[in-house]
Amino acid sequence: MPQAIVQTYFKAAMQNLSQMTPNEDDREHNRHFGLQAFLMSLVGLEAFLNVHFHMQGRVRKLGKVVKAATSDNIKVESKISNQAFACYGKHIVGQKLINKKIRELYDMRSAIVHPKWEPSSLGMTGLMIEDMVDNFQRAFEDRLFCREALQWCLLVIARIGMLQWPDNPDPFMQMWTSIPDTNTTLSDALGISKDGS
Prior knowledge:
64% of the residues lie in helices and 6% in strands. By secondary structure, the protein is mainly α. Strands 1-2 form a two-stranded antiparallel sheet.
């Protein structure tokens, strides 16, 4: 089943997240699992967008949707906005906020997979330390941050499920991710409106 591709990434994200501990002394351990949870969440979202919209494009005979779903040159937030509208004639609820947050997460992902070293210096009286770098990977030691990244990715899927199955969208998430969250549980966890108001 095509959904199995997507489920694999989200299961990996959940498994890595479950390995993180609340112990602040486990920073390196948590960073290891947090990075993997974060990356698998974003890979899972992108896999969902590509597979789901490829399938919908074929079923609905929308060649532009199929082409966009298989393109590597389209930003993820464009896939969320344009593909949903092309297939369902509507945008997802809260699209602007969601796209803004997803862009922030994908910018972090780009910094991880395409690291660039920018040396800086630290100066104190009588001491100068050169060639230091800010370690942004510390964010991935925070289980809450990694869990929220996963929840934002899942929210996109839940809200596309609302477009696909408006009368009963909740099973859509389970089918695509094997995670039983819903638009309501995710919106509540993230502290945002479930209906875009």
